[in-house]
Amino acid sequence: MEIKVMHQVMEWNEDVSDAVKEELSRHNVCLINVLGSPGAGKTSTIVSLIDRLRERYRIGVIEGDIAGQIDADKIHALGLPVVQLDTDGACHIEAMSIQHILTEFELDKLDVLFVENIGNLVCPAEFNIGESFRLALLSIPEGDDKVEKYPLIFATSDALAMNKYDLKEYFGFDDQRVERNAKAANPDIQVFRVSSRDGMGLDELTAWVSKRIDETIAK
Amino acid sequence: MEIKVMHQVMEWNEDVSDAVKEELSRHNVCLINVLGSPGAGKTSTIVSLIDRLRERYRIGVIEGDIAGQIDADKIHALGLPVVQLDTDGACHIEAMSIQHILTEFELDKLDVLFVENIGNLVCPAEFNIGESFRLALLSIPEGDDKVEKYPLIFATSDALAMNKYDLKEYFGFDDQRVERNAKAANPDIQVFRVSSRDGMGLDELTAWVSKRIDETIAK
How many separate domains does chain A show? Predict the structure, then answer.
């Protein structure tokens, strides 16, 4: 019974996701869905990307959280428009929530909308939210077996950034294993190695994100 | 509509969880529900506890995973009875799955059954699975804001082990903040600082786990 209902919700979610995508397209806004485990570095990576992209694009952020607004406060401190989406315990963001929140932004004054999804490698992968593309984060301390254990999130993401790469040696993390498994699940996935601590790889990731934004908002 | 269905499933889950608990009680088995993010160190902590407890107790393991059997293979290598529960994409373990799997074990030959839940700080917290107690893991690289962001899992766990404690200084992790917030959510929670890398704190954690096992199987 549970599976049946999930299926209905998900079909309905797809329709709303398409509607969100259309609305963003009308306003020439690129929505980036940022996914990853709790503590993978979603907020810090978004902040690093904002630093490098904000001279070129007008950026807004939706911060998804189960409780509190710690991350939204960090974005707010940057002086960007940010909305906190409190899922009140729910484990993922649905398109309907994004549709509702879009009315809080002046979309004609935005080029890019980052959505930081709930910290979870499972459920968010199943729900499109009208995104132009998905960026998945996997941090080194989580271990190099995570693509095998949580395949869907990597199969459905356009890019994978291995974050906290400065800890690769400490954890004996096999980044080739991760890249190999990610590309087996998803041959088109772009793989980056980054570190918010020392800035490694962030320029390469920014260049790719920027290219995808340009492709989206030029349409 | 979605919330309503979740509620029905969860009420039903509670009934099954009680039935599992009764069956385990008849056979004098203590079920330990181990929760935490992907990569928090659930498997390695279970292995460390098994090392320290196996002379005293007869131990079995249920390894929950969305896909694959990497962790079950590790337990199998220890020569213990293990069953892999493949949730086929589902984000948590339900009591019905445990009820079904119990028939795979010779319960009269067990004292302790570890269940490694799906790597997820959200959904598993909502589902009792007939456990005697819950052990939640939070690893240092995940960050010291996780109790505030994912309160339910810590509010419902009997113990919290901060794992990968060897990385505390590297990450500037405020363990007092975590302990304070965990105890605010749950005044009875036991807090441990452990490291599978250097063994720190594992004897203290083992002593507490052992005490809880004794209290359960003495009944």
Answer: 1
